[in-house]
Amino acid sequence: MCAAITSAVIAVGTAGYQIYNAEKQKKDAKDAIRKFRSQDLVNEYDSLTVDTSKSQQQTEANLSNMATATEALRESGSRGVFAGIPRLNEANVLLQEAISSDLERQSRENKILFAQGEENIRAIRENREALALQGLGQQLQTSRQDTASGISNAVSGLLALDSAINYNKNSGNTSNLFSNQFGSQNIDTTITIPQTDTTKLF
User: What residues contact 95, with CB distance under 8 A and at least 6 apart?
Assistant: First the structure.
């Protein structure tokens, strides 16, 4: 019967450890869910800028051409100046409009790319968060199941321990168990002291 008690005690101890470990994992999962923070992702298009090198080169070339054309008109006389200046101004306006159009196109394309980058970041973040929280939720659910299983095992172990102890009490002490195993025998334990006739001593 000692073996039954020992087995029951081991079962209760194992169940207790199972409950402790499950509760620890459950606490860790709850803490991780509560402290969960989104990952910081960088938009690869955040550093895009409008390239103004082309427009600067065009503007510098236009100014140089304007200066050369103006000098040529001056040498041609006042009539040439009055006739040529409006054409130079018109050409300058058209060039500046083309430069502005190119800069606006670049800015628009950069904004589109940035928006696409933000959308990609949102999708990646949501997917990672869903997977991370799903894993933590599974850990929490598993720990709850382990706790319930541990409690059930502890109850079973305690019932087995109680049964073993009661059986041991009802069966008596170990000497009774020994006599029950090998058969009941009445043993005379009376000690007889022989009587001596003291009158013969003298």
Answer: 58, 59, 62
